[in-house]
Design the sequence.
């Protein structure tokens, strides 16, 4: 059964890579390729979410949750898989809601920052998957330079979580205020 997960992982990783590259090309270049990238990124993002949902489900169906959660490496793998999904859900909602204006002004910057963040997180997910099957790569050495050994459970102090929640709330309030001021002008 584990072969199913090994096969499925290529789909979210492929679609996430393609969507991120389309966002970068659509943001930093002009011409036909950039135009196609901007127009076609939404269906690619939607496919990536579908592929990720199936792949994550396959992980939980193939390996019992108790077994997966008892290993720091597998815990980190699940954590980064869910984070990747979260980032690409955000990107999909932003591109969908903004429609043809998704790449205008400061929105473009938000898409680029999220795409780069997503790329580094899904690369980490794949790297940890490699460690789980004994195929290690140098990418985990890069993570070590940032202070994280993938064999230890990823940990952030509670004050960092609180700060992140606060930043999220501030962004939501700023968004609501700017929407209100736009609708009154
Ligand atoms: C989008 C989500 C996910 C991606 C992209 C992903 C990616 C990967 C990759 C690239 C591998 C290495 C496979 C190979 O080299 O053939 C792997 C292995 C593995 N993944 Fe995932 N994974 C995801 C979600 C999950 C989840 C939710 C679980 C939950 C239990 C999980 C559990 C595992 C385990 C246990 C292995 C080792 C397989 C083995 O020993 O045969 N993965 N994953």
Sequence:
């Amino acid at each position: 059964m584990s072969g199913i997960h090994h096969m499925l992982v290529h789909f979210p990783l492929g679609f996430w890579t393609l969507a991120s590259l389309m966002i970068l090309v659509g943001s930093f270049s002009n011409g036909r390729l950039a135009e196609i990238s901007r127009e076609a990124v939404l269906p690619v993002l939607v496919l990536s979410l579908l592929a990720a949902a199936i792949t994550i489900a396959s992980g939980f169906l193939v390996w019992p949750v108790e077994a997966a959660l008892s290993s720091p490496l597998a815990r980190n793998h699940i954590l980064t898989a869910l984070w990747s999904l979260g980032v690409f859900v955000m990107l999909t909602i932003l591109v969908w809601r903004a429609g043809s204006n998704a790449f205008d002004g400061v929105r473009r910057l938000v898409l680029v920052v999220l795409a780069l963040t997503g790329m580094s997180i899904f690369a980490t997910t794949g790297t940890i998957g490699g460690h789980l099957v004994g195929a290690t790569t140098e990418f985990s050495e890069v993570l070590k330079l940032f202070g994280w050994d993938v064999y230890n459970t990823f940990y952030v102090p509670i004050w960092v979580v609180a700060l992140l929640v606060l930043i999220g709330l501030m962004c939501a309030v700023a968004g609501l205020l700017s929407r209100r001021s736009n609708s009154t002008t």
